[in-house]
Amino acid sequence: MAGLLLTRPHDAARRFVALLPTTLTAGLTAGLQVIYAPLISVQPLGDDIPLHSGESVIFTSSNAVSAAAGVADCSARTAYCLGHRTCQQAAEAGWRAQICGKTADALVADLLQRRPCEPLMHLRGRHARGCIAERLSAAGLTCREQNIYHQPLLALTDEAKSALSASQDVIVPLFSPRTARQFADQCPAGARIHLIAMSEAVADPLKSLKYKDLRICSEPDAQSMAQLVHDVAVQLIRVESDKTAQ
Q1: Which of 41, 124, 128, 188 lies 20 to 30 Å from 150 when distance is taken between CA atoms?
Q2: How confident is the model at residue 237 (pLDDT cuts 50, 70, 90)?
Q3: Are residues 193 and 145 in the same domain?
Q4: What pTM does this model have?
């Protein structure tokens, strides 16, 4: 039986499983061993978020939306969001949410084109990429930032290590360069891994590993990742079925 190793926090991992095409989801229990092994956790810092009057916010992850749940007047503020999931969650939380692309570069380009008149605050995790506030400020917009959650790294679970050390194929979708590096540092030698990276930046830390194959999403979003997981899983399940039939 092939494995599907999910390294996102549990809630995000279960949402990702729900995105998988129905042709795969229906056969998950029969064809794949789903292993939840988060390599990162999300811990809100609990600090006050002192937004200025009229200030809009930038969210680059749904984790930031959750960590900003204590902002009382969010319904009066615009939230410029990276990605559909973040935008949807911000809207559900009461912000006036607007999507600004799927990558940090796209978000910066979008805001520079819009050139909002109000000051901006990027609410982010301690570990973030893209230097968004710095780039917007350098281009003439008023933008500051505040860290509102932390993302400590975690070790692979014993279940994950056991699956990776066995002679089974394991599909490993990875969503960020930081978790990709953590996985590369802990993956047992000889693992039969089929890696799927959200982007080239996520793929880079994985290239030192010996893998069966490495695929990179055509678009940096969960839907593209789910489709690639589906394609690899169907192929592995078909091969396993053919072996059984023989």
Answers
A1: 188
A2: confident
A3: no
A4: 0.89
